[in-house]
Amino acid sequence: MNGFFEFHFYLFSLLAIASALLFVTRKNPVPAALWLVNVMIALAGLYVMLDAPFVGIIQVLVYAGAIMVVFVFVVMLLNLGRSGISDIRSVGPRLGAGVVGLALLANLLVVQRQKIPRIAPAPAVDNVVEGVAASLFTDYLVAFELTSLVLLVAVIGAVLLAKKRVRV
Amino acid sequence: MISEALIVSAILFVIGLIGVMTRRNAIILFMCAELMLNAVNLSFVALAKMHNVTGHVFVVMVMTIAAAEAAVGLAILISVFRHFGTVDLSSLRTLRG
Asked: Which residue of B has its CA nearest to A153?
């Protein structure tokens, strides 16, 4: 059983990284969005392998199902899907990005190796969803309620920004 | 499996960062930001396996904020497209001195 989790963990990791690389190198936004959906579904698999099935399901529903649909919809609405010209910057910014990226990656790996204590993983809980719910609705209740306010403001803001301007 | 997950998370975050720095299409920049948020979520879940399920609560919060951010950001993008007729960031140079 443990080998099953290990194998699929590495499989989904490779899938996520390969899809992410394909995503940043596509010049057309529509294939890029579809590769990003692939990354998100691979990440959902990783969450399940890391004992977080609830987060995995939410990932598929919210990210792959809702947020990416909005992106593809905006691409369609603005008719950006056919641009033949590449939008990747010239060699200078590319080199800069490569250097910054490698430096950040090295930094993160060193921090990960040195600062995170090596303790054994906590024993797997039977019902993770129950733990999440108990934590969400007691300790983080205020944050949870404020989240609904943020969503309301976002909905009103999005409608206000995207609607046609009325001359006054 | 936890440290491997953190390494995958770092790699995905850096891919997103390189995307933000090398692309000019605003919609792809938004998608790269989503990729970076996902990378952080992965490390939250990995560390939740080490400690307790509080990390999952944070992931749910991050997803909600990401949804709100995507909605508002894309609305701004539609507004920008109406005004300038493009979403190429190098052609939005009104504030350039």
From this structure: B68
Neighbour tally for A26: CB within 10 Å:
15
B35 CA: distance to closest CA in chain A (Å): 8
Residues of A in contact with B67 (CB under 8 A): 62, 66-67, 151, 154
| Total length of chain A | 168
- Prediction ipTM score: 0.90
Tokens of A17: 């990284």
pLDDT tens digits for A136-148? 899 899 999 999 9
pTM listed for this prediction: 0.89
How many C-beta atoms lie closer than 10 Å to residue B61's C-beta?
18
Nearest chain B Cα distance for residue A68, angstroms: 9
The distance in angstroms from the start CA to the end CA of chain B is 50
Q: Which residues of A touch B35 (CB under 8 A)?
A: 20, 23, 36, 39
Q: How far apart are CA B56 and CA A57, in angstroms?
A: 12
Count Cα atoms within 13 angstroms, Cβ side, for A3. 0
Q: Encoding tokens for residue A139?
A: 């300790």
CA dist., res. B35 & res. A20, Å (int): 8
Rg of chain A's alpha carbons, rounded to an integer? 21
Judge whether A20 and B17 are in contact, CB under 8 Å.
no
> Which is nearest to B72 in space by CA: A47, A12, A69, A162?
A162
Contact check, Cβ <8 Å, A122/B50: yes
User: What distance in Å separates the CA atoms of residue B54 and residue B62, rounded to the nearest whole number?
Assistant: 13
